[in-house]
Amino acid sequence: MATIDAKGVYYRQLNKQIKDLVAQGNDEIVLNNVNGHRYIGDGLDSNVKLIINGTPGNDMAAFTNGVEIIVNGNGQDGIANTMNDGKLVIRGHAGDALGYSMRGGEIYVKGRVGYRVGIHMKGYKDKQPTIIVGGTAGDFFGEYMAGGRLILLGLEREEGKSIIGNHVAVGMHGGVIYVRGEVEAYKVGLEVEVLPIDEADREELKEYLADYCKEFDLDLSEVMNAQFSKLIPVSSRPYGNMYAY
Asked: Phi first, then psi: what are they for 129, rounded to 5°?
């Protein structure tokens, strides 16, 4: 295990240190005193594990392929842009545009997330990305989603606070969204249908939530003991007539 003290280190220098250690064959790197450093882990094509103590800056884990990243803190915006594979665990909250165009792997967030989470997510054959959020989400959740799965749990939210913002799944044309609770019809794009889950859905949810609950020491049966809503697209070309005739 290699360790880097990021205190006072410029973000470019920090990222060079990480890539140098990976090139030397280190498979686990601990980053201490991280405070707003941008682009951590970007472009890494390796099975390396990064343990980040602190709050990394924007665009962490962009274009990663197989990297495991544990964040013992919050995450900022643009995390996992076009992530191809790997696992990302954030033990706090995360900002906007999480998982933009994500193509594979898993993202687990213990707390809440911001706006436009999971937009343009896509899947191909056995590559189906997954984002699981333990808290609440802002507007445009799952916008233009083309594949994969989003799971929103809304755990420990304040009484009277909505689990999700407005304009949910606008332009969605693939994939599936599960929300632990009710999603009001006025919040959802016209291209999407909101359904109660069936037994097959419940079994699938249990499968994906088992690892999430283990990661955050949650009771799986307690998390599953709730009503879930399932959002699926009703069209594979929701705006086809606007651009082509």
From this structure: -70, 155
DSSP secondary structure string for all residues of 180-215: ES---GGGB-TTEEEEE--HHHHHHHHHHHHHHHHH
Angle ∠(160,166,172) on CA atoms, nearest 5: 135
What 8-state DSSP symbol labels residue 241? H
3-class secondary structure per residue, 72-88: ECCCCCCCCCCCCEEEE
Encode pLDDT of 12-66 as tens digits: 999 999 999 999 999 999 999 999 999 999 999 989 999 999 999 999 999 999 9
Q: How far apart are the C-alpha atoms of 15 and 37, rounded to whole Å?
A: 9
Find where tokens 């213990």 sit. Answer: 110
- Please state the domain extents for the chain: 1-74, 93-240
Q: Is residue 94 within 8 Å of residue 79, measured between CB atoms?
A: yes
The span from the CA of 185 to the CA of 81, in Å, is: 29
Q: 69: part of which helix (H) or strand (E)?
A: strand 65-72
Round to whole Å and give the CA distance between 242 and 49. 45
The model carries a pTM of 0.95
Cα separation, 35 vs 20, whole angstroms: 21
Residue 107 CA, distance from chain mean position: 4
CA-to-CA distance for 6 and 31, rounded, in angstroms?
7
Class of the CATH domain delimited by 93-240: mainly beta
CA distance 39 to 193: 37
